[in-house]
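Give me the fold.
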Amino acid sequence: MAKKNIKCYNSGKIGGLSYLQAYKNFENADQEISAMGFTPVNPIILGLKPSRPYWMHMVWDILLLSRCGHIYLQQNWKSSRGARIEFRVAKSWVFRYGFREIMGKTICTAKISVI
């Protein structure tokens, strides 16, 4: 299977940022994910309407994450409650993961195995 067919979930801060700034952050991260040879899964593009409650977004985002083989953590992920939850969920499904620092951004490349 070509690496481009492997999906990588894009995780980062949304709440507390303007929608435009969050969108730009995710768009930039998508470009980095693509440059690494993965297919980005962007919860802003594939997600629910912004008017939906937080818990609905988290359920949907975890469903998106479950379809991926890797997770990309944007530099701001530690300041996002949702991204920290996504990381913990991914880590609980992981049999191998690691962090890399690329262009000042912390990236967790994680092979996810859903049990």
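The CA atoms of residues 94 and 112 lie 5 Å apart.
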